[in-house]
Design a protein that fits this description.
Helices cover 31% and strands 18% of the residues. The chain is built from 13 helices and 21 strands.
């Protein structure tokens, strides 16, 4: 039996893939799956040295931004630095940090890293240096939290507010979240804060920045007609609803210069019952971002108000829907080909699926979050020829307020302590 799809190999100079053979396996749906096994180092499109989003990378596997819960009064800890060193050692082509607080108008999330003051530059630069020393590349994710914040903390002696585009009450986790509608002057203040945060990231040595425009954080809320009921220049039409996001990107570009990589994380859709950002609208926003010179767009989807099992983080075994944003991202990548790099996060667990996605679409990179918590060395393992699926079972028990880690890793560490 011959494979129905040709698999293209991209060889590095002076490296040979030896001992190649095809092993035909049946997957859980009894469909034939072709998996490549190598005696030696894999050199496929996934592991081809490349340039994505304006950054030279050793492969196309990106560690997507993941909240770490490792901040000490907003500053990085040794645990954080070691985690990023492990990711760099593990072979990730690019590391995107957890979301960093950019302003002092709103509270910080408990144990969140911040980049809202110049005093943050030196400690962040030490983390960046350690990643670079281990051969990694790292991008700072910048966020304005808005009303999607969980466990808000306000520094002693300060007054901060939880805000949103229109003050619409919402459900965040188990809590009902109230917020204040932003004034135009406050919107401008936040835009300026984001630009200054981007400049700090550049000064700290980060290889680029990513602005969080997804998952119900402020820029995402502005895009949603459900949460944005404004009647001024920041509400109503899609152009107006996208104004805050686009103004933030323009301000960031002015702050960091023409050549510094700027990425955006964006929902393909909100997947809400009413008032959702639609995929058609999202594609238009992506086109506007490309016109503004954004270097890469990471496609995600959903928020805390999405329909059941339609949020950003999904239990794959329950939904039976792996790679849940792939089709949306592939269509966007084809639309924006030659203008900006498009990648996708969500539900990738096998190197075969990743390779197929990269070969059959215009996607420039594949991101993962939870699998990297379980196995920070996953890219190296796959590259070495071990093509077993990621051990992550998508249970999401990794996420918590502090020191985020896979629940199985935590259990193993506890056992090691007991046995010691």
């Amino acid at each position: 039996m011959k494979p129905t799809k040709n698999i293209t190999l991209y060889k590095r100079s002076k490296k040979q893939c030896i001992g190649l053979f095809l092993q035909i396996l049946y997957n859980v749906q009894d469909k034939l799956k072709f998996i490549l096994y190598y005696q030696g180092e894999i050199s496929t499109m996934s592991f081809d040295t490349c340039r994505i989003g304006g950054i030279e990378a050793k492969c196309r596997l990106v560690r997507s931004a993941t909240f770490e819960g490792m901040g000490n009064y907003g500053l990085p800890t040794e645990n954080l630095a070691e985690m990023y060193e492990n990711l760099a050692d593990g072979g990730a082509g690019l590391i995107i940090t957890g979301m960093m607080a950019t302003n002092k108008m709103e509270p910080r999330q408990h144990c969140q890293i911040r980049i809202d003051d110049d005093e943050c530059i030196a400690p962040l630069s030490q983390v960046v240096d350690r990643v670079h020393q281990h051969g990694g590349k790292i991008v700072a994710q910048l966020v304005v939290m808005g009303s999607a914040i969980l466990m808000p903390e306000t520094p002693e002696g300060e007054t901060r507010i939880i805000f949103s585009p229109s003050g619409v009450t919402e459900k965040v986790g188990k809590w009902t979240q109230e917020s204040q509608a932003l004034t135009v002057d406050q919107i401008h203040e936040l835009t300026d804060a984001v630009a200054k945060a981007a400049a700090r990231a550049k000064k700290a040595g980060f290889d680029g920045v990513q602005f969080h425009g997804a998952h119900g954080y402020l820029a995402s809320k502005f895009l949603s007609p459900h949460f944005n009921t404004r009647t001024d220049a920041y509400g109503g039409s899609l152009e107006n609803r996208a104004r805050f996001l686009l103004e933030c990107i323009a301000a960031m570009r002015q702050a960091v210069g023409a050549d510094y990589p700027i990425w955006v994380k964006l929902n393909c859709a909100d997947f809400m019952k009413d008032g959702s950002l639609t995929f058609e609208e999202s594609k238009q926003v992506m086109a506007w971002l490309a016109d503004q010179g954004v270097n890469a767009i990471e496609v995600s989807g959903g928020n805390t108000s999405s329909l059941p099992r339609k949020g950003p983080i999904r239990a794959i075994r329950r939904t039976k829907e792996p790679m849940y944003f792939k089709a949306y991202a592939a269509e966007a990548a084809a639309l924006l080909k030659g203008k900006t790099d498009v990648g996708v996060v969500g539900g990738f667990r096998t190197i075969a699926d990743i390779e197929e996605a990269l070969e059959s679409t215009d996607l420039a990179f594949i991101s993962m979050s939870r699998p990297f918590l379980r196995q920070p060395d996953l890219p190296n393992r796959w590259k070495s020829g071990d093509t077993e699926p990621a051990l992550c079972i998508s249970c999401s028990r990794c996420f918590g307020a502090e020191n985020v880690d896979c629940i199985f890793n935590k259990k193993e560490k506890e056992k090691e302590k007991q046995d010691a």
